[in-house]
Amino acid sequence: MDMSSGKITMDDIANMAGVTKSTVSRYFNGGSVRESTRERIQEIIREYNYEPNTFARLKAKESNVIGVVLPTLNSKVSSRVVTSIGRYLREQGYETLIKDSDHSVDLELKNIQRLITLKVDGIILSAITITEAHRKLIQGSPVPVVVLAQDYDGGISIVHDDYGAGKAMGVRVAKARPARVGYMGVSALDVAVGINRKQGVMDGLKEWGIKDVVTAAGDYSYASGIRMAEEMMDQGPVDAIICATDRLAFGAYHVLGERGLRIPEDVSVAGFGGYDESTLLKPDLTTLRFDSYGLGYLGAETILKMIHREPVPKKQIVDYTMIEGHSVKEQSDF
To answer: Which residues form the HTH cro/C1-type domain (predicted)?
Structure first.
């Protein structure tokens, strides 16, 4: 231990406290540390005026930092995922370095490259999509990468069952025997929601004999939900509207209310998400909740196993729960 510079490292603190470096890291990241150990570490920190520097540790290849790339920070799903990741990693003595891609594929790729350059221990990528550029970057990465929310056959992924969830909702709405159904979706660039979830809905409707379906696509915003609902209703009446997200369902509620149409008496409405805010809708929205906390937990658990070269499943699927509100007609209403 060289004290001539007046600076000490985490290794020095561990040696002086008589513990492992991972224990010291857990202390700094709010993890579980025995009170007596915590007091010894605190005493050393005060004596030597030690200040941890995340980026210095990254540069020195002793980071205990996991990079997390999210499509946006402005969503309930992302909030739940990153909260779950942070909680788990803190308990294991790691901290997170979060990158927001702002729904930009180009920025997402740059964020991945930046984290690789910073030499984080591993990357949890909640992906917007998986392009050939993603594949090359992930496969060439010197640090392990686990992909969340998008199916990635070239590596390790953890996904929601978007197809199964979509089909379940399609069947639920179809049981009310609507003559004409509208589907408000998102761009096919997001394969999980834009393609898989939509296909599940279509197959569920088809299975129950619903053939007259009008579709629209937009982004994830409330404004997009309003626009799609207006365009859909302008094409003629529908008996039900299935929305790819609860936020889009908010837009559908607004438009139907503006046009004097009752939910579900005139038009049934269903969504996906199960957000807390969705309980504010009246009548209560029939929706489908994905286990976003579980997705984040599995992502954090899996990346640490990959770092320690433990075996992990190539693909893990997180389940969903149907939440029965009062926005979709029952079959007995016909």
So the answer is: 7-55
Task: Catalogue all structural domains in the chain, each as residue range(s) with its CATH number.
Answer: 10-52 (no CATH), 58-160+292-319 (3.40.50.2300), 162-290+322-333 (3.40.50.2300)
Could you identify the residue written with the tokens 């540069």? 59
Q: What is the DSSP annotation of 29-87? A: TT----HHHHHHHHHHHHHHT----HHHHHHTT---EEEEEES-SSSHHHHHHHHHHHH
Q: Is the peptide bond before 178 cis (omega within 30 degrees of 0)?
A: no
Q: What is the pLDDT of residue 98?
A: 94
Expressed in percent and rounded to 5, the helix, strand and coil fractions of the chain are 45, 15, 35
* Token couple for 110: 């740059």
* Nearest CA among 109, 200, 187, 131 for reference residue 160: 200
Instruction: Note the pLDDT tens digit of each residue in 276-310.
Output: 888 889 999 999 999 999 999 999 999 999 999 99
How does pLDDT run across 77-115, given as a tens digit for each residue? 888 999 999 999 999 999 999 999 998 999 999 999 999
Structure tokens at 304: 């640490």
Decide: residue 47, CB within 10 A, 0-12 exposed, 13-18 middle, 19+ buried.
exposed
Give the strand pairing for 156-160 and 181-186: unpaired
The answer to whether 302 and 312 are in contact (CB under 8 A) is: yes
Rounded to whole angstroms, the Cα distance separating 161 from 289 reads: 11
CA geometry: angle 247, 186, 167, nearest 5 deg = 85
Q: In what order do the strands lie in the sheet with 268-270?
A: 213-218, 181-186, 240-243, 268-270
User: CA 132 to CA 18: how far, in whole Å?
Assistant: 48
- Beta strands 320-323 and 122-126 are unpaired
Which H or E run contains 256? Answer: helix 246-258
pLDDT of residue 279: 83
The Cα 56–Cα 63 span in angstroms is 8
